[in-house]
Amino acid sequence: MPDSHLPSVDELLSIAVGALGGSERQGQITMVEAVQKAIDDEEHLAVQAGTGTGKSLAYLVPSIRHAMDSDTPVVISTATIALQRQLVDRDLPRLSEALGKELPHEPTFAILKGRRNYLCRYKATAGWPEDDEQDQLFDPREVSATGRMVQRIQEWAEETETGDRDELVPGVSEQAWRQFSVSSMECLGASRCPSGPECFAELARARAGEVDVVVTNHALLAIDAMGDLPVLPEHEVVVVDEAHELVDRVTSVVTGELSEASVMLAVRRVGRLIEQPLADQLMEAGEDLKALLAAAPPGRIDDLPQVLGLTLQLIRDTAWRCVTAMGPRNADKDDPDKAGQRKAAFTALDEVHDTAVRMLDAYGHASEADRAEVVWLDGATDRRPPALRVAPLSVSGMLRDKLFGERTVVLTSATLALGGTFEGLAAQWGLGDSKRWQGIDVGSPFDHPRAGILYVAKHLPQPGRDGLPQQYLDEITELIEAAGGRTLGLFSSMRAAKAATEALRERLDVPLLCQGDDSTMQLVKQFAEDEPTCLFGTLSLWQGVDVPGPSLRLVIIDRVPFPRPDDPLTSARQRHVAARGGNGFMAVAANHAALLLAQGTGRLLRAQNDKGVIAVLDPRLATARYSGFLLGSLPPFWRTTDPAVPRAALKRLSTES
């Protein structure tokens, strides 16, 4: 029964802010009341809350109150490990202590990740063969590096209390970690596994089932919503923080991959469990796929070539014959070693078979508008061979039915209203036709027109495909000199970031770091601690840099960050929207660019006294027909196209520092 004697969210927020040593902000108050109303009315809510609003507190307070009121946990989902750690290590402990005296008990919380993130005790002790032992023969240096990581994991396994991979610092490669972890499909199950009673993943799930707030990630949220078996404890309310990442993270979860490596993994795992001639047939099908992919050009595959279709059919049918030949799935259930080998073999075969089926089913539709999935070939790189991939053209239906259908969902981020409206992201989430949601912008505590200048270099030529024009390098040089360093350069590609770094290191007398020189965390630390230092990088820096104070006065963006025209998934989605009568460019490419631009410009103001300049070198932000939409997605900085204005402002700021 609901507890009518609980304090209101306004009272709880006031107590929390006072205990944490802050001050209440109007945007935070508006948000906490809107979240509480959405929970009470069982409606969905999208909240745009600018940096400095205190949005974590604004959704945690009503979430905790609801957990107490309903005696059911609330799930908080994030996109990044950094925010997960902030919530679990800093925000929730302090908030629980502050509110504990006002509530029936001190709020409890736990973090829950996918099974692959936890050490499998049984696999660590059973001496299972490494999946990729054949691949290790090629590079002795990688083998020795992997060996050292494996030894470190073994030592850590003796002392860890959680088995959580993120405790391993520095981290380890995926190849090393795979030797100690299993997917949910490979897991024997707690009742059949000899290590079941002490399984780290099961213990984490048990803890999550007993707390008020469960912190997880978008990938596990998607797996829980779309899978047959629940992973998260039963819940009525979900808060999706960093909600601008939700569609991409869900898409990653449901993207399938087929390659020679995945087929050969199935061959190795099926090993002696079936007759050798049948295993050889699957190996030959994998070799056919390898030859085919090596000769094919990378990119989207709109029409199924006959030879690829025949190869996919061969893989599908042979994998199914292998599955049938293995007999009942629960055979050898009393022998954990054999049961583990069988489960691993079934998992690999199922993945190969089901992915081949998906790829074949992606074709044969009467029109482009009826197509549901896109298939493309990812070309080989220095580190991996070519692979076929398949992904849905839209995840809106999945999200509408599986995530939003049976619970209240609150989505929040500093960037949700694109072009001044929530409609773009709402359509991607599957909420476009629903009447059970609303979007609100609670603003920002920053005075953007007074604190920052948005300068668009209208006089420069449009960016081309052949690297940065000389005029761009000249412009960057003059801006950085005016700022005395203190610059974050956000580039649309790593090639552009590296080219700018090499060219400008000879022209500037301030330290210039480039993403890739060291770990991103270490580079950001150096950048923050030494004021004249500049940092250049690409996509992950657009959203991952939080440097308040005088170390960051200038953010340079080299071009409007449209997706690459040859990107298979975004180009297919664009065409699919157009085939259904929509504006594919605006719905996909412009939304993508607006989201990244807003995230990039959001790096500048991180604390109340921050000031500076955003310099966008791409003149299309001032001249193109879609510029109004993009500008409408950005904070209301004071705008100019006059190059003298930002330089003068930066010089003034550099003397103040």
Automatic annotation (TrEMBL):
It is an enzyme of class 5 (isomerase). This is DNA 5'-3' helicase. It catalyses: ATP + H2O = ADP + phosphate + H(+). Belongs to the helicase family. DinG subfamily. Residues 14-286 form the Helicase ATP-binding domain. One of its GO terms (molecular function) is hydrolase activity. InterPro entries: ATP-dep_Helicase_C, DEAD/DEAH_box_helicase_dom, DinG/Rad3-like, Helic_SF1/SF2_ATP-bd_DinG/Rad3, Helicase_ATP-bd, P-loop_NTPase.
